[in-house]
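ok so i was messing around last nite and threw this chain in just to see what happens. nothing serious, just curious
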Amino acid sequence: MKNSLRTVSRREWLASSLIGSASLAAGWTSCAAAEPPKVALLPKDAKLRLSSWWLPVPGDIDAQLAFLEKAGVEGVELRGGVLKDPDKYKKALAKTSLIPTALDWSNCSAICSDDDKARQKSLDDLRRAIDIAHDFKAPNIIVVPPRLKSAFKAPDARTARQMLLDVLPKYGELAHQAGTCLTIEPVVRSSVVCLHTLAEVAAFCRELNSPGVALVADFSIMAEEETSLHGAFLSGGRYVRQVHLSSRRRRMPGQESEDARLFADGFKGLKAIGYQGFCSFECGMFSGFCDNLAGSMAFLRQQWDLA
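result:
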């Protein structure tokens, strides 16, 4: 009974507060109308394009980006204080040839909460993230499903999924008009309420039917949740827009005994779907990121060639 009552209150909010929201009427409404809701098929010839976060690199943002550029990665995921001080990071990026590959936003816990003020603030923050991604020309905004452990009480999986289905089409269209895409990242079931595998998120994307919503795949999470990485990427198919690189335990690729099998299996799947996006390092905080980056990149290129 408690779950039923909670579900009704969330749906009542969705019916009353989102329709005709002024925040959605502003900003990108002057852009051309969105394309019909579909996601184009990917080209056949897949490529390995390497990107990275910068958090494990010591120094200020200029030193961090300079290190990554010298190491030979093509792009960076926008993290850290980008949402608080975008101008600072835009100036730092302008000094390099690095391409912004994604903007790491936040999780959807507040969006799916019973706290009206927190929910609206989270939606306003997402709207601002879309503006920032447009400004940086970042093609993706990473979104994580509602977390089990957060400041907000998590709804049941069915309610959370329905709330996201009701909310995300509007923000997906805003993202599409802004030249970016909301990419949902499946996360292990011990951490989030719903959407744990690529197949689940791909089915969710098909139900949304929005050109502004897709998915980001993470090797560490996939190693925990998927029975086959090759099969998982086939399930994700055209919706796979970003990939996170990490061993199962968040170490650098190539540092664990099972990594050769893990990445060979995953890379076969990426080649099968003709993946053209970036594969970005999200690992190495406690396993020597700077000292092992070159070796890890060589390992990944070797596995890609073998796949």
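not much to say yet. The radius of gyration is 19 Å.
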